[in-house]
Amino acid sequence: MGRPGGSKTPGERVSEIVDKTQSSQAWNSIFRPGSVFRKGYTDSPRNRSYVIMNSVLYHLHPVKVKRHAVKVSYTLCLGGLSFFLFILLTITGIFLMFFYRPTAAQAWNDIYTLQTSVTFGLLVRNMHRWAAHLMVLSVFLHMARVFYHGAYKPPREFNWVIGVILLTLTLLLSFTGYLLPWDQLALWAVTVGTNMMGYTPVFGDQVRFVLLGGKEIGTDTLLRWYVLHVLFVPFVTVIFLAIHFWRVRKDGGISGPL
Amino acid sequence: MTEIPEHLRKRAEAARAKAAEKAAAGGGEEAATPAEPSGEAAASSGEAGKIPAHLLERSKSARARKAEGEAAPAAAPAAAASGGGLATAVADAAPPPTATGPGGHTQRLLTVVKAGSIQDVKATPVDKVHTWPHLLAVEFVAALVVTAFTLIFSIFVNAPLLELANLNETPNPSKAPWYFLGLQELLTMFHPMVAGVTIPGMGIFLLILAPYVDRNPSNKPEDRKFAVSLFTVQLMFWAVLVIIGSFFRGPGFNFIAPWTQGLFFEL
Fold first, then answer.
1. Helix A121-148 and helix B225-247, axial crossing angle in degrees, nearest 10
2. Rounded Cα gap, residues B220 and B209, in angstroms
3. Is the N or the C terminus of chain A less surrounded, counting Cβ atoms within 10 Å?
């Protein structure tokens, strides 16, 4: 191949490199048969099945889904987007954790420094905040969508229950994160919220004490809510998400056409 | 509802097209074939098209045999009296060439049973498509759109960061996060225990109970007007409370008009 002089065009060079990479043992050990990144992938029914069956996506999706289930007008992608926002929040949240110390003396200054001196710090904090509000909204809308389609009816009753639990977990995630900037907005929003929970009958005072880590909001509250926000509630949420997704498939995929 | 799978539908269409092609090509030949059988069968050419020739022949021979049997009624009773078994055996043995089909078949079509009237098909075929690319492509685009939206929104709108928290200085008004403002709004009407614990607790409890209380098996909107209207009223109730709490409450959590006194709302 190539021109008579033996020199190759850049295009030929690139395709040669691609060819060599795709034939290497390392490449083929990463991408399993049927992967779109494998050499000579063709669009055939068998390969379409392999893309799912031979990849980690098989944990989330079956090889085939009902035709009506891929209509955007049916689901509006709300459940999937809620999960995607959860992932986006995890990524931006891990970034924020590098610059934040949950003590009353340092928290606000850390956020301020993050916004003014850290590259993309302000942008990532903004994304974390807006994505959080968006997630609360999308989870709410997802619930409404499921209700209006009657998708909670047998055999999906229990998955609806898990969904309600996930809704409250979403609210908890958002609310625990609300305190962390340790500004006037955070402090007093949480004061209002925890005062309300303090009116729980019988154990009102105990509930408030456990939530605040003391008699009133302080640095102990901040540490407590930080651990709840970055570790405890996400951990519980992931478990319920796994059950939620698993049940969607076990209960026969998403609900049928109306 | 069962829809025919795409690949089966395509196969059937292809077969139908092929058959039509064949019919168009061999039309001349087929017109000639009905004339082949002997005189009488060919005469009723309209029927010959529907009823196979060998069946016509068989019925004709049966009719002939019946006529024969009527012609010799005297002989038969006598034979029956001497030994019925023998008589029938003889009768069966005698006309084999006329009672059988052209291939020597002796079976008859008794009835036609439609599929499904006896056998119950359990696995009804469902119209399905491959997850890749049909679903994954949609999900990927949706994720991209949301990421782009969040990114662009974050470039132009900053998250609020007010001054350092100060326990000795209560801002006026103090508001909860927006999704709790409905509850804070209820706080103005009820005892804190009712507004902050009982009502939201009951709300979550009723949501969990919904699939067990709603026994209506249909998921069609026209069949579940009560459930849909109840839920809609509920949603509107909360939405209105949240909107009032967010935009129409000012200092001292008193009513304000946001277009004259401004917004007292931070996200």
1. 150
2. 20
3. N
CB contact, 8 Å: A195 with chain B? yes
Partners of residue B150 in chain A, C-beta under 8 Å: 88, 127, 130-131, 134
Contact call for B161 and A181, based on CB within 8 A: yes
What are the chain A neighbours of B169 within 8 Å (beta carbons)? 184
Taking contacts as CB-CB distances below 8 angstroms, the residues of chain B near A67 are 3, 127-129
| Stretch 166-185 of chain B: residues touching chain A, C-beta under 8 Å | 166-167, 169-171, 174-180, 183-184
Q: Are residues B255 and B175 in the same domain?
A: yes
Q: For chain B, what is the domain count?
A: 2
3-state per-residue secondary structure call for A124-185: HHHHHHHHHHHHHHHHHHHHHHHHHCCCCCCCCHHHHHHHHHHHHHHHHHHHHHHCCCCEHH
Q: B150–A183: do the CB atoms touch at under 8 Å?
A: no
Distance, CA of A190 to CA of A147 (rounded, Å): 31
Residue A108 touches partner B, C-beta closer than 8 Å: yes
The pTM (predicted TM-score) of the whole model is: 0.75
Asked if the Cβ–Cβ distance from A69 to B135 is below 8 Å, we say yes
Closest Cβ–Cβ partner in B142, B193, B235 for A199: B193
* Structural domain boundaries enclosing B202: 171-267
Question: Which strand (E) or helix (H) includes residue B128?
Answer: strand B128-130
Touching check for A84 and chain B: CB below 8 Å?
yes
Question: If we measure between CA atoms, which residue out of A214, A216, A224 comes closest to residue A187?
Answer: A216
CB-based contact, A24 to chain B, within 8 Å: no
Cβ neighbours around A149 below 10 Å, total: 19
Domain residue spans of chain A: 10-59, 69-250
pLDDT per residue as tens digits for the range A8-41? 899 999 999 999 999 999 999 999 888 999 988 9
Do B211 and A153 lie within an 8 Å CB cutoff?
Answer: yes
A5 touches chain B (CB under 8 A): no
Tokens of A197: 């929970």
B108-157 confidence digits (pLDDT tens): 788 877 766 666 666 677 889 999 899 999 999 999 999 999 999 999 99
Distance to chain A for B119, nearest Cα, Å: 24
Look at strands A64-66 and B128-130 and give their pairing: antiparallel
CATH of A69-250, one of 3.30.830.10, 1.20.810.10, 3.40.228.10, 1.10.1740.10: 1.20.810.10
| Predicted confidence (pLDDT) per residue in B162-189, tens digit | 999 998 998 888 888 999 999 889 988 9
Q: Which of B101, B124, B146 is the last residue of a domain?
A: B101
Q: Which of A71, A119, A66, A130 is nearest to A95 (CA)?
A: A119
β-bridge mates for residue B129, sequence order: A65
Residue B202 domain flag = yes
In a domain, B241, yes or no: yes
Task: Find the range with the poorest average confidence among A138-152, A236-250, B167-181.
Answer: B167-181
